[in-house]
Write a structure and sequence with these properties.
about 270 residues; two-stranded antiparallel ribbon; 5-stranded mixed sheet; 7 strands; alpha+beta; 11 helices
């Protein structure tokens, strides 16, 4: 989709291991500008997840992230939002729309410049259940400066402590090593982070989706199992930047000491 010379140029900002990742990264960036340049979408959708962390808070972006995770700000019919997304992202072609009760996903399929690399699938996923924020939402400036595309916008998102709280929930609920990596990177890069706000956000979000909040011991047992799981440990192998050194066990010790220990009733 994107001429190779522009992919090579973008690799200076997104030095991922394969050209397909670099191309998708640039597509994601343009898509964000397209979405948040639409006045309707800019009020009705909030950006969160690993891509939000990398594009808005962790610079230089430490890992590749391929999807756009959004949250419907207010409980309302989703059709108008999907129509606006189709229009804003018309340059990607017609998406496949997958609709569920609490989740709507648009999947755009694009042929990469490297024809042997397999289709690029850009997934734009909308959470239609969590119509709340623990702290006031914020708008963060975002810009793309490429010879292929230039643009800027303000992205509606959550403050870093709240995004970190949702990541801590993800570490507990999912089996994705990248969630642990993200938490470790946040704690390493943002020493000023309000840990109390992180834990309050974690408890609010996990309490919203789980039948009970795990105890300190349950959290440790959960992570003990994951840190022996090969799939969890190797999840980040292909997606880290070239200068990033990462040890999941070291990462867990930091996350445990700075966040999870706050669940310990003895402390």
């Amino acid at each position: 989709m994107i001429p190779e010379r522009y992919i090579t140029e973008w690799s200076e900002q997104a030095p991922w291991v394969v050209n397909k990742f670099i191309e998708q990264d640039l597509i994601v960036c343009r898509a964000l500008v397209s979405i948040y340049s639409d006045t309707f979408l800019a009020e009705h959708l909030a950006f969160r997840g690993g891509t939000a962390l990398g594009k808005l808070y962790l610079k230089p972006q430490p890992r590749y992230s391929e999807d756009i995770d959004l949250v419907q700000v207010k409980a309302e019919p989703i059709k108008e939002t999907i129509d606006h997304l189709r229009d804003a992202l018309a340059w990607l072609g017609e998406p496949v729309v997958k609709q569920k009760k609490h989740n709507n996903t648009l999947v755009f399929k694009v042929q990469p410049t490297d024809m042997d690399a397999g289709e690029i699938h850009l997934k734009v996923e909308i959470n239609c259940k969590e119509h709340f924020s623990v702290y006031p939402m914020v708008r963060v400036p975002f810009a793309v400066n490429s010879s292929w595309f230039k643009g800027a916008c303000e992205v509606l998102t959550y403050e870093l402590a709240e995004l970190t709280g949702t990541k801590l929930r993800a570490v507990y609920q999912r089996r994705k090593g990248r969630d642990l990596f993200d938490l470790w990177k946040i704690l390493s890069m943002h020493l000023e982070l309000d840990k109390g706000k992180v834990m309050e956000s974690y408890e609010r979000y996990l309490g919203f989706t789980a039948s009970h909040l795990p105890t300190y011991k349950e959290f440790l047992l959960n992570m003990d199992g994951k840190l022996q799981d090969e799939e969890f440990l190797t999840d980040t192998e292909m997606i880290l930047g070239p200068q990033v050194e990462y040890d999941p066990q070291v990462a867990w010790e930091k996350v445990k000491a700075e966040l999870v220990e706050r669940l310990n009733p003895v402390v």
